[in-house]
User: Which sequence fits this backbone?
């Protein structure tokens, strides 16, 4: 069945839908696959204007700009931050460079959306969020999962008590990296490779969305070679017998579903759980084995008409970037410095957990 959905920032009264004459100019930091897909999605948002793009290569920036109809390109990230005419920077470069690029934007007075993973350490995350606060600017990690209607609806049902007391969250996100041709980056230590950096934000993010970012104990193990974790399992143990189980890897493809289990029922966020369009609710009824089952399906936004002629999408459901980008613009317009779907406090809490996970993984190699 279908379901009505109003984004959390609107339903909570924090923002409103933007009139079409309100425009926010976006500067794109990077020309890789994620940047390509993000730009493709932005083309379908009436409040978004593609203003400029930057790369380490002048030629690549110019080619990207020509493909996507972007009026200005720069062969330097710093140059775009200082000279580009834009309001919001999308940082889609590799995460070892995120702090440098996001900091340049903040110093130039620009709002920033940083593709996940935000940075590579809690110290870097604190440096950026403190600078943004000092400057009075919006900054967020691009955990786009939180903005998908299926996820917002599932979290609303949990907060409203449909599952009773939730005791367990199980999430997995594993890909066959060799099959999809991403090994050059995923297996490169200097470029921040490893399953934990690339995929665990999705799985840990489900646990923290339900239980928060203060587990009593963190247990992490995995297969690590030459500084790269090929797979990992993280168990977050919370008070009152609550458990988060997060599995990520890049050797085989998993079902990639998330299960949230409570005393009155369970919700399954269906594959691909990092960008889902469907959830299943199973509620307990009186008597053993008696259940009520409901399915919620959410159609993705329409693709922009120029999608195929400008290279399509690289990844599944990338048109869903619209949910995140639209929320960012609404929040900025309302004078906010974060989005309620994924707050700065939670992001920093996950960074703290991730630091501990990496320490345990590499101690056990």
Assistant:
């Amino acid at each position: 069945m279908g379901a009505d959905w109003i984004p959390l920032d609107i339903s909570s009264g924090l923002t409103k839908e933007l009139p079409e004459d309100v425009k926010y100019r976006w500067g794109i930091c990077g020309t890789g696959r994620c940047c390509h897909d993000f730009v493709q999605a932005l083309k379908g948002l009436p409040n978004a204007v593609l203003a400029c793009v930057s790369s380490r290569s002048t030629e690549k920036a110019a080619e990207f700009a020509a493909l996507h109809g972007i009026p200005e390109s720069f062969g330097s990230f710093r140059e775009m931050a200082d000279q580009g005419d834009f309001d919001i920077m999308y940082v889609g470069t590799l995460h070892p460079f995120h702090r440098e690029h996001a900091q340049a934007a903040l110093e130039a007075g620009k709002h920033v959306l940083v593709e996940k993973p935000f940075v590579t350490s809690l110290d870097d995350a604190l440096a950026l969020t403190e600078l943004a606060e000092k400057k009075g600017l919006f900054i967020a990690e691009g955990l786009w999962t939180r903005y998908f209607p299926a996820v917002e609806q599932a979290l609303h049902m949990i907060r409203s008590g449909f599952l009773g007391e939730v005791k367990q969250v199980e999430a997995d996100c594993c890909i066959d990296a060799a099959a999809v041709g991403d090994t050059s980056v995923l297996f490169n230590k200097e470029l921040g490779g490893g399953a934990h950096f690339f995929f665990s934000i999705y799985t840990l993010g489900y646990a923290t969305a339900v239980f928060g970012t203060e587990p009593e104990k963190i247990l992490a193990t995995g297969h690590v070679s030459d500084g790269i974790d090929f797979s990992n399992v993280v168990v977050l143990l919370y008070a009152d017998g609550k458990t988060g189980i997060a599995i990520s890897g890049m050797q085989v493809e998993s079902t990639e579903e998330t299960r949230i289990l409570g005393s009155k029922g369970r919700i399954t966020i269906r594959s691909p759980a990092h960008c889902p369009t469907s959830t299943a609710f199973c509620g307990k009824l009186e008597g053993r084995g008696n259940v009520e089952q409901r399915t919620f399906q959410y159609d993705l936004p329409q693709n922009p008409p120029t999608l195929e002629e400008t290279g399509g999408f690289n990844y599944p459901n990338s048109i869903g970037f619209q949910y995140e980008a639209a929320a960012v613009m609404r929040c900025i317009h309302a004078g906010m410095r974060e989005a309620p779907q994924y707050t700065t406090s939670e992001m920093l809490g996950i960074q703290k957990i991730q630091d501990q996970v990496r320490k345990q993984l590499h101690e056990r190699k």
User: Anything to note?
Assistant: The longest strand covers residues 228-237. The two ends are 47 Å apart (CA to CA). The mean pLDDT is 95. The CA atoms of residues 45 and 326 lie 7 Å apart.
